[in-house]
């Protein structure tokens, strides 16, 4: 398998999608590091910088092999991690991602084997690493202040359309979301995947609920507490539609998504109907694709 050439700038771009916030402790994320070692040893190795880098490299391999590839073949559970092994990770590390030789030397087959022992253990940890919430929620936290500011600058109907476009564009441009969707689709019955997806969905809905509370308060219609419970039921439908949406090749997004607009605004109307006054209900009912 041949990689590269890559550059340190490309590596920083990749890590901006998949890395966690400062202070993230992988000792509470990774479960298969140094399984034969003592608990302090496991904690120490999980926190080692090369351990995180091995995980970032593994996600990059999956993304390039299964999502960015030109040929679209069916991928089953037995093949999803087929190309993610110690030798491939070492070869990728040598492709130019790292500025110093010291960084590259840490990422070799022996270090990989000392950390996980076997590929299957690494792949289980890679699932835990992929679905940790910090990177995904960082995307929302960066986007939501702009959406809140926009609520003070445009009518509600326009805000709903703008918010839908912003979120769809963000999702379609995120390698992390692509990886989430791919792994969840290929491994729908995996207990770890199902647990992580459920947890992330609850966190995501709560983050959006917090934004909606601020936005609709700004429009003069504070959302009733009961709405959060309704969002956990209807919000999952919104998310499934959002993830499954894909523009047709060669077609502008604004022209290929009218059905999505209507579904999004209709779902919003149902969710907010408990607490919105008539004038805001009317504004939502009038939301249509441009």
What would you say this structure looks like, in words?
The protein has 290 residues and is mainly α. The protein folds into two domains: 123 residues, no CATH class; 153 residues, Tetracycline Repressor, domain 2, CATH 1.10.357. The chain is 66% helix and 0% strand. The protein contains 15 helices and no strands. Helix 12 runs antiparallel to helix 14. The termini are far apart. About 18% of the residues have low confidence.
Briefly note the CATH topology name of the largest domain: Tetracycline Repressor, domain 2
- Quaternary structure of the protein: single chain
Number of strands: 0
Return the average pLDDT rounded to an integer: 79
Order of helices and strands: HHHHHHHHHHHHHHH
Can you tell me the number of structural domains? Answer: 2
Percentage of residues in helical conformation: 55-70%
Biggest sheet overview: none
Q: Please give the CATH architecture of the largest domain.
A: Orthogonal Bundle
| Strand fraction | under 5%
Which overall shape is indicated by the principal axes computed on the Cα atoms?
elongated
Structural class: mainly alpha
So what's the CATH class of the largest domain? Mainly Alpha
Q: If helices are DSSP runs of H or I spanning 4 or more residues, what is the number of helices?
A: 15
- The stretches of 5 or more residues where confidence is low (pLDDT under 50) are 225-277
- Cα-to-Cα separation, first versus last residue: 47 Å
Indicate the radius of gyration in whole angstroms. Answer: 22 Å
């Amino acid at each position: 398998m041949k990689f590269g050439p890559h550059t340190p700038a490309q590596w920083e771009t990749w890590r901006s999608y998949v890395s966690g916030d400062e202070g993230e402790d992988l000792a509470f994320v990774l479960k298969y590091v140094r399984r034969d070692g003592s608990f302090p040893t496991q904690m120490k190795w999980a926190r080692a910088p090369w351990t995180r880098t091995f995980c970032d490299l593994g996600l990059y391999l999956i993304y390039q092999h299964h999502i960015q590839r030109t040929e679209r073949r069916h991928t089953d559970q037995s093949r999803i991690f087929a190309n993610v092994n110690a030798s491939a990770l070492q070869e990728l590390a040598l492709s130019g991602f790292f500025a110093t030789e010291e960084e590259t030397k840490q990422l070799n087959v022996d270090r990989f084997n000392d950390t996980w022992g076997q590929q299957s253990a690494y792949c289980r940890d890679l699932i835990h690493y992929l679905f940790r919430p910090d990177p995904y929620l960082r995307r929302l936290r960066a986007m939501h202040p702009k959406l809140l500011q926009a609520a003070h600058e445009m009518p509600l109907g326009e805000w709903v359309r703008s918010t839908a476009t912003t979120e769809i564009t963000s999702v379609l441009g995120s390698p992390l979301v692509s990886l989430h969707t791919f792994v969840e689709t290929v491994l729908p019955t995996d207990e770890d995947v199902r647990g992580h997806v459920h947890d992330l969905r609850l966190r995501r809905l709560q983050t959006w609920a917090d934004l909606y509370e601020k936005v609709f308060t700004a429009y003069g219609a504070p959302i009733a507490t009961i709405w959060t419970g309704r969002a956990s039921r209807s919000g999952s439908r919104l998310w499934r539609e959002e993830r499954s949406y894909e523009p047709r090749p060669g077609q502008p997004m604004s022209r290929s998504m009218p059905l999505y607009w209507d579904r999004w605004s209709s779902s919003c109307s149902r969710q907010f109907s408990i607490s919105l006054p008539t004038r805001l209900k009317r504004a939502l009912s009038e939301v249509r694709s441009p």
